[in-house]
Design goal:
The structure holds 2 protein chains of 2 kinds.
Chain A (H helix, E strand, L loop, with lengths): L1 H22 L5 H21 L2 H17 L1 H6 L3 H23 L22 H10 L3 H12 L4 H8 L3 H18 L1 H4 L1
Chain B lengths: L1 H16 L7 H17 L7 H29 L7 H6 L14 H13 L4 H17 L30
Classes of the chains: A mainly alpha, B mainly alpha.
Chain lengths: 187, 168
């Protein structure tokens, strides 16, 4: 309970600051947006696109879009949901373009990093990434936010503009699929 | 249920062995530079511009829809409009000759009757009047109308009973 209240209080200040900077048309707002969203957005995009290179390109496009729509951002009811919606749309646009042009991701580089450890299999990162890549997009994005950005279901529901129950059920279904996909690892 | 929870926790711990890297400093510089460029290129939207733009778009859409409806209507009615418009008023159109009447034969017949009755044939009318005058002149009273029956008297419609009929 205390934790969630702290989260809300922590979040309110940058939210207001960000809106104020955007309303003043202050270019410093870009830095604030970066500090607030860059890490989460990059993880989200890597989870969706399964490519670090593509995720970085799309992140750049997302920032340009945010800047172009800055006045709408000031009035957005849910700032996080608005920003992540832009990211989702841009990543889907890239996926659609790839399908249309029948090209694959530019660089097949792993998005996940596994610290060097003798007990772990060498290709753990590749296996995890392959399994995440085979999940449906809605489940994948929830799992990435939950596992790799340590977000609560409440925060994820705010970010994605969904109910907490939907987020929790997507997480559960995604984990069930991952369990079957990574059966050899879990055993 | 417990078994499932344990499996989930185990899977979460495996997933957490890996992590997603934070954005690099180079990436930050690159993206912020691009965003700053975009910031300078795009002028901020004034608050009143958004509803005005929406209104203009709605008006344009409405005009387009009306124009489309007009075009569609003209196209549909094109085959019903004859080439010489005055001819339709001067002489009666032969309804039977029109292609593709949208109604059944009965309605077509009614329409043709209606068209025919609206046409005044002067010679036929003259003949009709002459015939009527002739009938009136041949009648015994010379066409003079009988005065109306006074109130209280017997109606002319009731015939006088014949004198040779007895009711007993």
């Amino acid at each position: 309970m205390n934790r969630s209240r702290d989260n809300i209080l922590d979040k309110k200040l940058p939210d207001n600051m960000l809106r104020a900077a955007l309303a003043r048309n202050d270019p410093a707002a870009v830095e604030l947006i970066w500090d607030r969203y860059a890490g989460d957005l990059l993880a989200f995009l890597q989870g969706v696109l399964c490519s670090r290179h593509d995720a970085e390109d799309v992140l750049q496009t997302v920032f340009v879009r945010i800047v172009q729509k800055r006045q709408r951002l000031v009035k957005a009811r849910h700032l996080d949901a608005y920003v992540f919606r832009i990211a989702r749309n841009e990543s889907l646009r890239l996926i659609g373009r790839r399908k249309k042009e029948r090209t694959i991701a530019a660089v097949n580089e792993s998005c996940l990093i596994v610290p060097e450890d003798r007990r772990q299999p060498n290709d753990l990162a590749e296996q995890l990434q392959a399994a995440l890549g085979r999940l449906p997009l809605p489940q994948c994005e929830v799992i990435v936010m939950r596992i790799y950005r340590q977000k609560t279901f409440s925060e994820i529901s705010g970010i994605l503009g969904l109910s907490q129950n939907t987020v929790a059920s997507r997480y559960r279904y995604g984990m069930e699929k991952l369990r079957t996909l990574l059966e050899n690892l879990t055993l | 249920m417990n078994n499932k929870n344990t499996q989930n926790e185990q899977l979460e711990s495996i997933l957490r062995r890996a992590h997603v890297p934070e954005p690099s400093l180079e990436l930050k510089e690159r993206i912020i530079a691009e965003a700053a460029k975009a910031w300078n290129q795009t002028s901020p939207e004034l608050p009143w511009q958004i509803p005005v733009r929406r209104l203009l778009v709605s008006a344009a859409a409405a005009v387009f829809v009306i124009w489309l409806a007009n075009c569609s209507s003209d196209f549909t009615l094109a085959k019903w409009q004859s080439g010489k418009v005055p001819a339709t008023s001067d002489q009666p159109t032969d309804i039977e000759a029109l292609p593709e009447m949208p109604y059944g034969p009965f309605v077509r017949h009614l329409a043709s009757l209606n068209r025919r009755s609206s046409v005044i044939d002067a010679s036929a009318l003259n003949d009709h009047i002459e015939a009527l005058r002739h009938i009136l002149e041949e009648s015994p009273q010379g066409g003079a109308a009988k005065p109306p029956t006074p109130a209280g008297s017997r109606s002319r419609l009731i015939l006088d009973p014949p004198s040779n009929i007895s009711y007993s």
